[in-house]
Amino acid sequence: MPSPDRQRLPNRRLCLTDVVSWHGADWLLSIGFDHGGRVREVFLSGPKCGSEIEATLADACILVSLLLQHDHEPAALLDRLSRDPVSPEDPAASPIGLVLERLAAMQASGAEAAREAYAAAAALGRLAS
């Protein structure tokens, strides 16, 4: 259930970055986690720095991140977005849809890798508690 209170992120936190493709273009997707291994922020960088689409996606990622920090579920957000063409089985109609697909898949798998990475980083003293 969404929370009216924003979950403040720790100053030092795990961030995973991967390349995702949408309509033939490669994008860098960075996913930030809280100390519990929950996804709390996303960033998406496009193939052309300074473009209007990159600015639009940066703003959209800020909004998605704020929703995640208020405990909205990625899968619930994804259900509200457009599909190409219209079926839930069809691919995302936008890069933000692609981001939410990735987040929902991570959440469905339990984000175990994120929790393990946090435990390893904490053991090395790399993260503030």
Pattern of helices and strands: EEEHHHH
Strand elements, count = 3
Q: Helix/strand/pairing class, anyone? A: alpha+beta
* Mean pLDDT across residues: 82
* Low-pLDDT sequence parts: none
Distance between the termini: 26 Å
The gross shape turns out to be: globular
How do the strands line up in the largest sheet?
1-2-3
Rg from C-alpha positions?
A: 15 Å
Helix fraction?
25-40%
User: Helix count, per DSSP?
Assistant: 4
Query: How many strands, which pairing sense, and closed or not: the largest β-sheet?
Result: 3 strands, antiparallel
Total of domains: 1
Which range does the strand content fall in? 15-25%
Pfam family, one: TSCPD
Enzyme class: oxidoreductase
Organism: Zavarzinia aquatilis
Family: Belongs to the ribonucleoside diphosphate reductase class-2 family.
